[in-house]
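Still learning. Show one?

>
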Amino acid sequence: MSVQPSSSMETQAPGNYSPPKQDGRSAQDQAIENWLPINASRNAKWWYSAFHNVTAMVGAGVLGLPYAMSELGWGAGVTVLVLSWIITLYTLWQMVEMHEMVPGRRFDRYHELGQYAFGEKLGLWIVVPQQLIVEVGVNIVYMVTGGNSLKKFHDTVCEDCKKIKLTYFIMIFASVHFVLSQLPNFNSISGVSLAAAVMSLSYSTIAWGASVDKGKMENVDYDLRATTTPGKVFGFLGALGTVAFAYAGHNVVLEIQATIPSTPEKPSKKPMWRGVVVAYIVVAVCYFPVSLVGYWAFGNAVDDDILITLSKPKWLIALANLMVVIHVIGSYQIYAMPVFDMIETVLVKRLRFPPGLTLRLIARTVYVAFTMFVAITFPFFDGLLSFFGGFAFAPTTYFLPCIMWLAIYKPKRFSLSWFTNWICIVLGVLLMVLAPIGGLRNIIVKANTYKFYQ
């Protein structure tokens, strides 16, 4: 599958370098393309890429990393964290490079790149189900995270108040998204995303800073959390999924890059990569201190959300939880936007619904209500992290970009590129197979004592 230049490249408007019209696309079809959320705006700057990627990646996952360390132990935990950071940065670079591998064309969506690599039908079936599982799964987990953090904020600020069910806090969190989901495209949520990125860095700093201030617990225990052999094995597998969940930005990276203007002289991959590097520096500053300091301070007594373990100083922990709420508001929208794009594409192109405000109002409201309902029904935070992290994040983050790179560029066998990609593929497949086992067991164990809609 060779990369051929396109003769229509010169016809593109400067700064809005887009796929050429194909198959005699009508003006109406072109108008629909320009109406869809991903294609609607292409005037983003490189720093949009930075904070969109930070918002997409640093979220619920970072708060569960100390807990993952307690399931992995020092040696395995540090190794998995560092390897994941390196591998995912490499695969993210590959996706940024592949966005415009064909001159005159942009792969604005993950499934479009998959279709180019694997064929029109096969690529769609390989990518879309996994991407939807990731994005819908993240939105469900963020509903749980937002509700939990709101509850923690309320209980910390008002200890003597009447206890309110988690269900109601999830509903309060969801009510914000019924409004924000009506924003049309990525650039329209840039302010929300920037605030979310700042919050992620802030509450991560509070999490490890408060842990340092509290110091190491008396009789801190660094043995694995579980005491039985099956428990240790399943816990280890589940922790792998939690780490995989923490590196999730790949599922929206092409859609983010689609918002950046591009010309043959100034391709979007340069500003996009600059933003990705800044984002990954922020990721390292957030992930490693929280993981290592949180585990150092509390050992295997740490909760699945580090902020729940911390209780003093009250005002700081309350502030941190409020920051988490603001952050996951932005993160929810970042992951929801590609889903909105898919839903609206099907409704308008396949089912021939007229594009407009009414369609968006109904479709997006139904989607937010769906994620809220599932979150209320299954609020198992750590189990959800592990299950979704392994089942869907591993393919789309760790090895699908490598498979597409091998299929498209065909590097020489046994070359450095060939070896590197195959190592990532093998590790990613192992992660995909093993991690969901631990997460599913965790969900089943907690479901035995859980009362629905508590």
